[in-house]
Design the sequence.
């Protein structure tokens, strides 16, 4: 069993940065892939980035490539999403998830409660 809690969301101006954290409980977290997804009002849940547990290989959505960076610290049971050069279209609730590394949110087993990110123009 893995429990996830996101933090670090907030209001930022366009061009600014935020760092999201995903704190995991459960000693098996380090054996899961971790993904970040987002959902804006009226839109479907969207893949943002993922990272595998063993070799830290990463994958990004085209819309965030070069601006966002996903990382994890297995010793601290924590994952991160560094978001730079934020745009108003990045506004959404951001969720972290644990499961097989995938861009398909339906493949993930565990989810956090989400954290709001709002980017003003």
Sequence:
């Amino acid at each position: 069993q893995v429990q996830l809690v996101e933090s670090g969301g907030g209001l930022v101006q366009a061009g600014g940065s935020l760092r999201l954290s995903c704190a995991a409980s459960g000693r098996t977290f380090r054996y899961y892939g971790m993904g970040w997804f987002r959902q804006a009002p009226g839109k479907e849940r969207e893949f943002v980035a993922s990272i595998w547990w063993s070799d830290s290989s990463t994958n990004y959505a085209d819309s965030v490539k070069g601006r966002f960076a996903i990382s994890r610290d297995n010793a601290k049971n924590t994952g991160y999403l560094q978001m730079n050069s934020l745009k108003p279209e990045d506004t959404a609730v951001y969720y972290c998830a644990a499961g097989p590394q995938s861009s398909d949110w339906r493949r993930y087993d565990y989810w956090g409660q989400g954290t709001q990110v709002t980017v003003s123009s």
About this structure: The mean pLDDT is 93. The CA atoms of residues 21 and 80 lie 5 Å apart.
